[in-house]
Amino acid sequence: MVIGRAVPGAEEAISYDMPAMKLNGKFFVGFAAWKKHIAMYPVPKVGEDLVERVAGHQTGKGTLQFPLKEPMPLDLIEKLVKLLEVQRAS
């Protein structure tokens, strides 16, 4: 699993009625499946290197949408959850 590799301490959970990952017992990142996309919540602050890639998926301040008709950008998700971990620690 991408998130487990990126953030080894993350644990699978259900939070806010959706599949989620917890870190140190607290909500870390969640996903929801919709008719045409999979959503990821929350979105970390990204640097210049990721702004363009994230912009194509961002639909709101804290949400990314990945269309079901496109391959999941697992490398992007891995980078984003690593950023979430770092930002949460600071």
Task: Please describe the structure with a list of short key phrases separated by commas or semicolons.
single chain, 90 residues, alpha+beta, Aspartate Aminotransferase, domain 1, 6-stranded antiparallel β-sheet, 3 helices, 6 strands, 32% helix, globular
Largest sheet: 6 strands, antiparallel
Total domains: 1
What topology, given as strand order, has the largest sheet? 1-2-3-4-6-5
Strand content: 35-45%
Q: What does this molecule look like?
A:
This protein has 90 residues and is an alpha+beta fold. The protein has one domain: Aspartate Aminotransferase, domain 1. The protein is built from three helices and six strands, in the order H-E-E-E-E-H-E-E-H. It has helices at residues 2-6, 48-55, 74-89; strands at residues 11-15, 18-23, 26-33, 37-41, 58-60, 63-67. It has a six-stranded antiparallel sheet with strand order 1-2-3-4-6-5, covered by helices on one side. A hairpin with a 2-residue loop joins strand 2 (18-23) and strand 3. The N and C termini lie far apart (25 Å).
Task: Show the helix and strand layout.
Blueprint: H1 2-6, E1 11-15, E2 18-23, E3 26-33, E4 37-41, H2 48-55, E5 58-60, E6 63-67, H3 74-89
Antiparallel strand pairs: 1-2, 2-3, 3-4, 4-6, 5-6
Quick synopsis:
With 90 residues, the chain is α+β, with helices and mostly antiparallel strands. The protein is built from 3 helices and 6 strands.
